[in-house]
Amino acid sequence: MDRAIKIIGIAVMIVLLTTAAAAGDHGEAAHHGFDWMGFLGKLVNATILFGGLIFLLRKPVIEFLTHKSLGIKTDILQREENVKTTTSQLEEIGKRLEKIELEVTRMKEAAQENGIEEQKRIEELGKKEAQRILDLTDAEISNRVENSVRNLKARIADLTIEHFKADVEKQLDKKAHENIIEKNIEISGDIIERE
Description:
This protein is mainly α. The chain has helices at residues 2-30, 36-171, 174-194. Helix 1 crosses helix 2. The protein is rod-shaped and about 200 Å long. The relative contact order is 0.03.
């Protein structure tokens, strides 16, 4: 209501100013008096015109402004909600990133520990395998040495027997051979008599 009164007051002022200006232009030519009837007629016309406009447009303008203000409020509230949601999402993403960084750090540490353990295990297996190869090599060498010694002893024995045989054959003539046979027969006879 106060707004309507202000609008009417502004309309009256505009009409007065335009009427005074128009009267000033016509009055100098005709006479120096003020035309109150013309002024009141214009004032009534302006009041009816602006009053009618205000009366007719007041509800649609109020509804439009109300709707517009509600839309703006809704938009502001929605934007505030979006800002809150976005802020909470950013905080959550930040927390997730921190967790991911911690997980990556833990994974790196675990990978390093596993790598060190795997390296130790491989080194241990390598040492065991090297020791096994050394043991097998020692056993193989021992076996070969023993075989070589046996072969050498057998060869020496064969050579000794052959040498002894050759010596015996050289030293054993027919007469010595007959003496040995006779001694063996005598020894055999003595053994038979004892039984």
